[in-house]
Amino acid sequence: MKKHILVIPGDGIGQEVTQWGKAALAQIAKNFGHEFTFDEALMGHAAIEVTGNPLPDETLEKARKSDAILFGAIGHAMYDNDPSLKVRPEQGLLKIRKELGLYANLRPILLFDELLEASSIKADILQGTDILFFRELTGDVYFGEKSRSEDRNTASDLMIYHKYEVERIAHKAYQAAQQRSKRLCSVDKANVLESSRLWRETVQEIAKQYPDVETEHMFIDNAAMQLIKNPKKFDVVLTANLFGDILTDEASQIAGSMGMLASASVGDGVGFYEPIHGSAHDIAGKNLANPLASILSAALMLEISFGLKEEATTLVNAVDKALKDGYRTGDIADQNTDTAKVLGTQEMGQLVLTYLAQ
Amino acid sequence: MKKHILVIPGDGIGQEVTQWGKAALAQIAKNFGHEFTFDEALMGHAAIEVTGNPLPDETLEKARKSDAILFGAIGHAMYDNDPSLKVRPEQGLLKIRKELGLYANLRPILLFDELLEASSIKADILQGTDILFFRELTGDVYFGEKSRSEDRNTASDLMIYHKYEVERIAHKAYQAAQQRSKRLCSVDKANVLESSRLWRETVQEIAKQYPDVETEHMFIDNAAMQLIKNPKKFDVVLTANLFGDILTDEASQIAGSMGMLASASVGDGVGFYEPIHGSAHDIAGKNLANPLASILSAALMLEISFGLKEEATTLVNAVDKALKDGYRTGDIADQNTDTAKVLGTQEMGQLVLTYLAQ
Ligand SMILES: CC(C)[C@H](C(=O)O)[C@@H](O)C(=O)O
Ligand SMILES: CC(C)[C@H](C(=O)O)[C@@H](O)C(=O)O
Fold first, then answer.
1. pLDDT tens digit sequence for A107-136
2. Residue B140 backbone zone (phi > 0: left; psi -120 to 50: alpha; other: beta)
3. H helices of B180-291, where?
4. Chain A hits for B152, Cβ within 8 Å
5. Residues of B in contact with A162 (CB under 8 A)
6. What is the CATH number of domain A1-103+261-358?
7. For ligand 2, is residue A221 a contact (CB within 6 Å)?
8. Is A338 part of the annotated catalytic residue set?
9. Pick from A125, A197, A252: which is nearest to B225 by CB?
10. Which residue of A has its CA nearest to B204?
11. For chain A, how far is it from start to end, CA to CA, in angstroms?
12. Its pathway (chains A, B) (predicted)?
């Protein structure tokens, strides 16, 4: 199989981890006789520094021409500390999601048995958890009109949904639920928000087309609580953009660390794969970041964009083997970890590559 | 001390638990020689059924005339299942918050040692946690303009903040931080939302007036994760209305159960005290609800509205004694609980009263 992959490392630890996702893809190509070609492009603060634009036209063009995109992370402390800056790294990520029609963000909460103890949640509560989030990604308060009054004393963002936006992601989520345990939980705040009432009504309608799937509607506040109280209760979770952002980060604690979670953004065309962790500027450049989420993002690419199931499994198994052999990055180490086996970004990446090459 | 207290049981389990908060107040008055008089009023579904209005004028009038309000819960499955209904119970709660100027919602995460094991989070992660949330309560997407297009296919809610709204709650939160461990974490989504950028700018300004308090700014997604990863990291947490709704429900798992958490809403005038749990219609009328959050809400009333510290402590101690003696309601029972000591709403309420009367 011939595929052309665009790699966008982005900012902070994105620079460090993405090379390992890319290297893993290259090794898989070698193992299975595929021909993967790679290109690189700038986005975020990295792009602002060079071009003044968080999403340069060139990046967007390259993205459109690629068969899939591997992305790192975005964001920089400079902007976080100065809310008045007009050009911001995150605009690049939001724009590429919108331009490529990446309306469905899949975030599987993949639980490795070896990491059960790395979580702050009790192992018996976690064991057996298997959640697949469908987070809407191109609507909501992220994309509604923003405004600031002239005296700068009033600011607003419009939380807005169109019915077709809810429908298309609901269909994707229901189809996934049919392939899984046939349970879907839709999260909203319909007791307060009009946009959530549209969300709920629409999901209620779509639900009728999937009578084999059991639907539950839950308020976001309750969901944020239930998710840690009883994570096994959930299977497919369908959420709006903002609520999904919050819930999936929270859910990362189920998997032991944010450093383990990959995501796939899909929709109208090319697929976009990224760890759910951010740019983490506090640890950037220190060889401390966990490269496994990037490698697992590559696995999602193989499976979802290229339909290469066996190749994807090979990648996941290599990650699993590293964990089974006792290796950890700092974020997933616990008191039982052999300190000699706590690895840096480079060493963990290299280890997985070595397993793949065997 | 003479005080007039308005009791609004509201909907669902609110009807069952609020009478115990009230009874506890009456017993405290007796013990300490105060004169507390009580009145009752309708709100929510209970009020819609009788008057067609989720917040009847009479309730609002009684509220304005009272020295403090003890509230139960609001909401009903009928409305949750039918998003198209125009008159909804929650409108009553939102309206009374707005009308009474209850802009600051204080939600202390009070940890009883006896309940450490009732949480899904590991005891060693929880131990020593002491968080006080300041949730903004009369602004945000809760109160911004709502709209629905004529074809009903587009719906929106305006997420909006005015600078003065952020300032007044920030001052309250900083003042509390000065009395505590002098750490404040402000939560927003300033990397995406204009209203959050106003929030962050304003908090940065107010922070300068409290140089003895250490300020941290955190994105809501990260906060939702950190809260369960390392709850001890937090002391005073300052949030907007929606983010506070989500984070405090999530944080209820730290206290073992939502059934244990009380809250105080204060602002321009009279104080309003309520459990953070909802109406829980699935268990309503079954004598299963935990009355302790209502009793602890009464304790907050004594302390905050009436300045009766000793009386408040007496109430908290009675709750603590019930737990120390091994008594639990279903929501806080664990595998170590003596099943003979798992009590219903009535029995737990009565037990605390008995302790108070001793
Ligand atoms: C960086 C930020 C804009 C982004 C989001 O909020 O969507 C991130 O948190 C994510 O979840 O991908
Ligand atoms: C019932 C609902 C409107 C309310 C809210 O969202 O504010 C509740 O969840 C709360 O936290 O008090």
1. 999 899 999 988 999 999 999 999 999 999
2. left
3. 194-207, 220-229, 241-251
4. 163, 198
5. 153-154
6. 3.40.718.10
7. yes
8. no
9. A252
10. A81
11. 22
12. Amino-acid biosynthesis; L-leucine biosynthesis; L-leucine from 3-methyl-2-oxobutanoate: step 3/4
Distances (CA, A) of A50 to A13, A41, A73: 18, 11, 17
Classify burial at A235, counting beta carbons within 10 Å of its beta carbon; exposed 0-12, middle 13-18, buried 19 or more: buried
From the CB of B204, is ligand 1 less than 6 Å away? no
| CA gap A7, A273 in Å, rounded | 10
The ligand 2 atom nearest the CA atom of B94? 3
Distance from CA of A326 to the nearest CA of B (A): 22
CATH topology assigned to domain B120-254: Isopropylmalate Dehydrogenase (3.40.718)
The catalytic site residues of B sit at 142, 189, 221, 245, 249
Output DSSP code: residue A342: E
Regarding pTM above 0.70, the answer is yes
A194 phi and psi, to 5 degrees?
Answer: -65, -40
Distance linking the first and last C-alpha atoms of chain B: 22
Verify whether the Cβ–Cβ distance A162 to B142 is below 8 Å: no
* Pairing of β B236-239 and β B183-188: parallel
Q: Would you give per-residue pLDDT tens digits along chain A (358 residues)?
A: 999 999 999 999 999 999 999 999 999 999 999 999 999 999 999 999 999 999 999 999 999 999 999 999 999 999 999 999 999 999 999 999 999 999 999 999 989 999 998 899 999 999 999 999 999 999 999 999 999 999 999 999 999 999 999 999 999 999 999 999 999 999 999 999 999 999 999 999 999 999 999 999 999 999 999 999 999 999 999 999 999 999 999 999 998 889 999 999 999 899 999 999 999 999 999 999 999 999 999 999 999 999 999 999 999 999 999 999 999 999 999 888 899 999 999 999 999 999 999 9
Choice among A67, A157, A249, A320 that is catalytic: A249
The domains spanning A1-103+261-358 and A120-254 adopt the same CATH topology: yes
Annotated domain spans of chain B: 1-103+266-358, 120-254
What is the number of the ligand closest to the CA of B241? Answer: 2
Report domain B1-103+266-358's class. Answer: alpha beta
